[in-house]
TrEMBL record:
Protein name: Thiamine-binding protein domain-containing protein
Gene3D superfamilies (alphabetical): 3.30.70.930
Lineage summary: Bacteria, Pseudomonadati, Bacteroidota, Cytophagia, Cytophagales
InterPro entries: MTH1187/YkoF-like, Thiamine_BP, UPF0045_domain
Organism: Rhodonellum psychrophilum GCM71 = DSM 17998
Domain called Thiamine-binding protein: residue spans: 8-95
Family under the similarity heading: Belongs to the UPF0045 family.
Length: 98
Protein backbone atom coordinates (compact mmCIF):
# COMPACT_ATOMS: atom_id res chain seq x y z
CA UNK A 1 0.00 0.00 0.00
CA UNK A 2 1.52 3.30 -1.09
CA UNK A 3 1.85 6.43 0.97
CA UNK A 4 -0.22 9.27 -0.45
CA UNK A 5 -0.98 12.89 0.41
CA UNK A 6 -4.55 13.88 1.21
CA UNK A 7 -5.44 17.55 1.61
CA UNK A 8 -8.69 18.23 3.44
CA UNK A 9 -10.53 21.52 3.77
CA UNK A 10 -13.56 21.51 6.07
CA UNK A 11 -15.80 24.55 5.97
CA UNK A 12 -18.36 24.44 8.78
CA UNK A 13 -21.64 26.30 8.62
CA UNK A 14 -23.27 27.46 11.81
CA UNK A 15 -25.56 30.34 12.66
CA UNK A 16 -24.29 30.55 16.24
CA UNK A 17 -20.81 29.00 16.56
CA UNK A 18 -17.39 30.32 15.56
CA UNK A 19 -16.12 28.66 12.38
CA UNK A 20 -12.48 28.61 13.54
CA UNK A 21 -13.41 26.84 16.77
CA UNK A 22 -15.27 24.22 14.74
CA UNK A 23 -12.33 23.73 12.38
CA UNK A 24 -10.13 23.24 15.44
CA UNK A 25 -12.19 20.14 16.26
CA UNK A 26 -11.26 18.60 12.90
CA UNK A 27 -7.59 19.45 13.38
CA UNK A 28 -7.67 17.86 16.85
CA UNK A 29 -8.83 14.57 15.28
CA UNK A 30 -6.02 14.70 12.72
CA UNK A 31 -3.42 15.52 15.38
CA UNK A 32 -4.64 12.70 17.64
CA UNK A 33 -4.41 10.20 14.76
CA UNK A 34 -0.63 10.34 14.79
CA UNK A 35 -0.27 10.63 11.01
CA UNK A 36 2.21 13.10 9.58
CA UNK A 37 0.36 16.30 8.69
CA UNK A 38 0.82 19.98 7.92
CA UNK A 39 -1.79 22.58 8.87
CA UNK A 40 -2.01 25.51 6.47
CA UNK A 41 -4.37 28.51 6.37
CA UNK A 42 -6.60 26.81 3.79
CA UNK A 43 -6.33 23.06 4.39
CA UNK A 44 -4.56 20.35 6.31
CA UNK A 45 -2.43 17.88 4.36
CA UNK A 46 -1.95 14.37 5.72
CA UNK A 47 0.51 11.65 4.68
CA UNK A 48 -0.14 7.91 4.89
CA UNK A 49 -2.09 5.00 3.40
CA UNK A 50 -5.20 6.12 1.51
CA UNK A 51 -7.69 4.04 3.51
CA UNK A 52 -6.35 5.32 6.82
CA UNK A 53 -6.40 8.95 5.68
CA UNK A 54 -9.97 8.70 4.38
CA UNK A 55 -11.06 7.21 7.71
CA UNK A 56 -9.38 10.07 9.62
CA UNK A 57 -11.02 12.59 7.28
CA UNK A 58 -14.42 11.02 7.99
CA UNK A 59 -13.83 11.27 11.74
CA UNK A 60 -12.71 14.90 11.36
CA UNK A 61 -15.89 15.95 9.59
CA UNK A 62 -17.99 14.01 12.12
CA UNK A 63 -16.21 15.86 14.95
CA UNK A 64 -17.17 19.21 13.43
CA UNK A 65 -20.80 18.16 13.17
CA UNK A 66 -20.73 16.76 16.71
CA UNK A 67 -19.33 20.09 17.94
CA UNK A 68 -22.46 21.84 16.69
CA UNK A 69 -22.01 22.73 13.02
CA UNK A 70 -25.28 22.74 11.11
CA UNK A 71 -23.51 21.39 8.02
CA UNK A 72 -20.04 21.07 6.55
CA UNK A 73 -18.54 21.54 3.13
CA UNK A 74 -15.63 19.13 2.70
CA UNK A 75 -13.06 19.33 -0.08
CA UNK A 76 -10.44 16.63 -0.65
CA UNK A 77 -7.34 16.67 -2.83
CA UNK A 78 -5.17 13.61 -3.14
CA UNK A 79 -1.85 12.92 -4.78
CA UNK A 80 -1.39 9.24 -5.56
CA UNK A 81 1.44 7.65 -7.51
CA UNK A 82 1.00 4.32 -9.27
CA UNK A 83 4.22 2.67 -8.10
CA UNK A 84 5.74 5.10 -5.63
CA UNK A 85 5.07 6.89 -2.38
CA UNK A 86 4.20 10.58 -2.02
CA UNK A 87 5.85 12.46 0.82
CA UNK A 88 5.14 15.93 2.13
CA UNK A 89 8.84 16.61 2.70
CA UNK A 90 9.65 15.94 -0.97
CA UNK A 91 7.47 18.93 -1.84
CA UNK A 92 8.02 21.40 0.99
CA UNK A 93 10.90 20.06 3.09
CA UNK A 94 13.34 22.59 1.67
CA UNK A 95 11.11 25.43 2.91
CA UNK A 96 10.85 24.30 6.53
CA UNK A 97 12.83 26.06 9.23
CA UNK A 98 15.83 24.07 10.42
Amino acid sequence: MNTINLGIQIIPKSKTLDSYALVDKAIEVIQASGVKHVVTPFETVMEGPQEALLEIAQRAQEAVLAAGADEVLVYYRMQIRKNADVYIDDKIGKYRSK
